[in-house]
Structures are given as structure tokens and as C-alpha cells.
Amino acid sequence: MSMVQSRQNVLSNNVKTVLKYLDLQFQSCWDDVEQDIATGYTDLSKEIKNMRSALSVLKFYHKEDKEQILMINKYLQLLSKEY
Fold this sequence. Notes:
The chain is mainly alpha-helical and 83 residues long. It has one domain (13-80). The chain is 64% helix and 0% strand. It contains 4 helices and no strands. It has helices at residues 13-25, 33-39, 44-61, 66-80. Helix 3 packs antiparallel against helix 4. The chain is globular, with a radius of gyration of 14 Å.
């Protein structure tokens, strides 16, 4: 029987901020990602790629709203500091 050990503080504040934003935008699709990364079920680099893709979708969806585009760009910039 193997046990999964949870690693604390795996995610930086930037990643946590982006996850909170995406969770609000996509209505609970990103709830368990933080826990999945901490327990090793998924890899942080894969999830950062998924976050970038989700932000790109939002950027396309809000292409007429400059305020939303600026906010999305801010979150993309936060992710660019990670990997």
C-alpha cells in the first residue's frame, strides 16, 4: 500500500492567485487543482500550461472588453514568472 504525502506550500502566490481567478471565471472547474498538485496527482508545469490555455480562451472571449483583456494579461504575466 503506497501512501501519498502532501507537500505544503508547493504553489507560489502567483499560481494561487491565477487559480482563484480561473475558478471564478469557469465556475468551479479549478477547485481541486491545488490539492492535486500538492498530492502529486498532476504536475505543476502541466497545470500552468492548462492555465495559460484557459486564460487565452478568456482573452478571445473578451476580445472587445479592454478592461478584461488587461486583467487577463496581468494573470498571464504572473504565470510567466513561474516557468
